[in-house]
Amino acid sequence: MKDFLVDSVFFGAFISLAAYEAGLMLKRKFKLAILNPLLIGTILVMLALVLLDVEYKHYNEGARYISYLLTPATVCLAVPLYQQLTLLKKNLKAVAAGILAGVLTSLVSVLLLAKLFGLTHEQYVTLLPKSITTAIGLGVSQELGGIETITVAVIIVTGILGNVLADLLCKVFRIEEPVAKGLAIGTASHAIGTAKAMELGQVEGAMSSLAIAVAGLLTVVGASIFAEFM
Question: Which segments does the entry list as coiled coil (predicted)?
């Protein structure tokens, strides 16, 4: 059985999609924020690999084909932004200030926590791109000498936390403006958070989509500067 799974080029893709679908079913049934489909899917895949005693490299031979869709899927987020172009032009200064503030907050927080916990330079630069989409974050981590696999894990965890906590945090801090919600979610938790923003509304989704692209570009520049601080 194990040999069949290892040799199958479809195993990784199948188990990934099946686990994610299971997460969607649980989310629809119980409607709890903690039951994020990506979080549930990740846990189920991990359990399956452990129980079936399948190494990650064999799983990834099939699962990597899903990863190829990550970049074009991110680019497609430009569609809702185009639909809200008038609103963007109207709030251009506020949008620019909000995204810049979010990116700086992310970089400064990583720097302070890295110093507080005594992280090495390699560990520090690994965490710098935590709030941007994987397609960009991997390149940043590689360029700065970080640990790419950990960067991917940190980006995913950041996105899941943003997706799960976004609505609650907006209510706690009484953030009601759709533009502000979208910018905050997209800047802090990239594409995974944007999925939640789109659930909240079209404006939130569009602004979050914009934040992903702009925050990614700003982080590429900002991370290179902040990497020299430690």
Answer: none
Region for 31 from its dihedrals, namely left if φ exceeds 0, alpha if ψ lies in -120 to 50, beta otherwise: left
pLDDT tens series, the chain, 230 aa: 666 666 677 888 889 999 999 999 998 998 887 888 888 998 999 999 999 888 888 888 888 888 778 778 777 777 877 878 888 888 899 999 999 999 999 999 999 999 999 999 999 999 999 999 888 898 899 999 999 889 988 998 999 899 889 988 999 999 999 999 999 999 999 888 988 898 899 899 999 989 998 999 999 999 999 999 98
Query: Is the distance from CB of 133 to CB of 212 less than 8 angstroms?
Result: yes
Q: Where are the domains of the chain?
A: 2-68, 75-229
**Residue 103 near residue 218 (C-beta atoms within 8 A):** yes
